[in-house]
Design brief:
This is WD40 repeat-like protein. By secondary structure, the protein is mainly beta. It is built from no helices and 29 strands.
Length: 349
């Protein structure tokens, strides 16, 4: 049996709002004061920093460049995105050092960017906004396309669908998951999460979709504000079927299941592999789940196999995981920003 053990905490002066791995030895951490830091996870020292971005760093997407150990980084901040070459000679970068920038939200409104996501070719960047917009940036031409349908409320998550170069899926506070063909700027499918009272009790938190994750096999998981995880298996690729289906069917309600797994908002979620999922609640309850799908019966069995409370975090904003470690970011009890690094290891009963 395996689990995770805390090995290090790193404090920042501002709240940690986003995290991503560069490669397995580097963690990129964005903060709500418009700064970003790159940490070496072997020495826990800052290798590079970006400052004076002006708004919260809401999301980070890294790109490998031949000849550089440090990944380049697309950073979502306020109304636009910036590209930084992190192996620049300067230790601290500012917006004037960015290689490219793209303004997305209107300067006259109050809209801001939330999540960004790179496609498999690293040539397109999907984005979503507080006003419910979903779109794609062609990184070569810097052209921006906006989907014709928007969410009715905040859209906090968007991702390209693995092995589907034309398709992406978004989730929002309107309780909707929307599946787009971004080349046509059109909706391919949609699922609205509506919950029934469980065991005679009623939740006082609506099922706002706060986070999503997609496995390489095409399973989608969505975490909600009332502690549920919605799992969609309609888009799973089955090698025995041979030819790929015309479109991803991950939002098919007949091949989906809903699971009450927490007492508070599930704010961040990630697949470790196609059968293992990790999530954290807002208050730092971290859970690893084993997904056992009975194909014959069409039933999903969700088994918690490891659970722990974050050590110093009072509020979790971000989580990333790979095959050796788990990293959490957010706010500690004294109001400062904090990163917790956990190592995967074998648990002795």
């Amino acid at each position: 049996m395996t689990g995770y053990f805390p090995v290090r905490t790193l404090q920042t002066s501002a709240h940690v709002s986003s995290l991503t791995f560069g490669h397995s030895g580097h963690i990129f951490a964005g903060c709500d004061d418009g700064t970003l830091r790159v940490y070496d996870l072997s020495t826990f020292k800052v290798l590079k920093a970006v400052r004076s971005l002006g708004s919260e760093v809401s999301s980070i997407a890294c790109v490998k460049r031949p000849g550089s150990d440090l990944r380049d980084a697309w950073i979502a901040c306020g109304r636009g995105v910036y590209l930084f070459q992190m192996d620049s000679p300067a230790m601290v970068l500012t917006p004037s050092d960015s290689l490219a920038s793209v303004d997305i939200c209107s300067p006259d409104g109050d809209d801001v960017l939330n999540e960004i996501s790179l496609d498999a070719s690293k040539s397109r960047l999907a984005f979503c906004t507080d006003n419910g917009l979903v779109g794609v940036i062609e990184l070569g031409s810097k052209s921006v396309s906006i989907m014709k349908t928007k969410h009715d409320n905040v859209c906090g998550c968007v991702k390209f669908i693995p092995d589907r170069p034309r398709e992406l899926v978004s989730g929002g506070y309107d309780k909707a998951l929307i599946h787009f063909d971004y080349t046509q700027e059109s909706v391919l499918s949609r699922h609205d999460i509506s919950l029934q009272p469980t065991n005679g009790s009623m939740s006082f938190s609506p099922p706002f979709i706060l986070c999503t994750a997609l496995s390489d096999a095409g399973v989608i998981a969505a975490g909600t504000a009332d502690g549920h995880i919605w799992l969609g298996r309609g888009g799973v690729r089955l090698p025995s079927k041979g030819k790929k289906t015309r479109k991803w069917n991950g939002l098919d309600s007949e091949r989906a299941s809903l699971h009450k797994l927490a007492n508070g908002p599930i704010v961040t979620i990630a697949f470790c592999n196609s059968n293992t999922l990790i999530f954290s609640t807002l208050l730092g309850n971290i859970t690893e789940l084993r997904l056992n799908h009975d194909r014959k019966q069409g039933e999903e069995h969700v088994l918690p196999v490891w659970q722990q409370q974050a050590k110093c975090l009072a509020k979790v904003n971000a989580l990333v995981v790979d095959d050796k470690k788990l990293v959490l970011g957010g706010i500690c009890r004294d109001g400062k920003g904090i990163i917790e690094i956990w190592r995967k290891d074998v648990i002795t009963p």
